[in-house]
Input
Amino acid sequence: MRGAAALLAVVAAVACSNPSDLPAPSVRKSTLQVEELRPAHGEAVFPKRADSVKLLVIGDSGRGDQRQQEVAAQMLVWRERFPFDLVLMLGDNIYDRHTAEDYAAKFERPYKPLLDAGVKFQAAIGNHDDAGQVRYRNFNMDGHRYYSFRRSDHPLGRVGPGGVRFYVLDSRTLDPEQLAWLEKGLAQTGSRWKIVYFHHPIYTSGRYQAAARSLRGSLEPILVNGDADVVLSGHEHFYERIHPQHGIVYFVAGAAGALRPKDIRATSLTARGFDTDNSFVLMEISGDELFFQTISRTGDTVDAGVIRKR
Output
């Protein structure tokens, strides 16, 4: 652990909460611990290991306005400190119209320096996104509304035990075929970390709590039984890290372009929340550790920590 980043360290064992909320067979096989960190201003908490998976998370980004551009500029500032090469997009990637100019104004121009540097964007589809977006080459969905991909944490990129398997869902329609695909994928992967992301959250302290409960009934047992570790969603236009639920760490990160100020309600779910400005999340995954740091549009750290697998 880095000394300056450890001014505050809160260690919380992640246990299955409220077991009665899930069907009886739902059991996680691994345990996580979350340790909160308080870095100095402008300091990155990441170890920046040569063999790690380094990524950035944005949701609800595609406004094409000044705020999105300012967030994109801040992403470049932090890439100088933390050289991520992957961006996860949590849906609502292009708002309103979907013409060629919209893709240029709301994605290609704001993120041109990252695209030019070879950073790869992997998108999930949201409720404001056009169905044809799955074929847009820069979102790397290859025509699929749900799909999976893997990143290695081996220094030579070799596939083997370890690494990260990402599962990207279409939460607009969680049909039986998609749920069966996810259940099978989670069961069969040999990757150390399993990260699932999609647009609509199944835990939130925002305005969509009722919809979240509805989605949770069909999706959460699969996530728990499949030993998913981290779940990322957007849709709510703020940042929220949820207290671990049934051993899984949930993040809501839907404020990379859109924002609903002061929209987080008072609930017992919130471990850390930020709803007064736009933000994005950085992550580094290596071995049994996942470091995270959430950055505001103005460059301030609003949350940081490390998740460890036990």
User: Anything to note?
Assistant: The chain has one domain: 10-309.
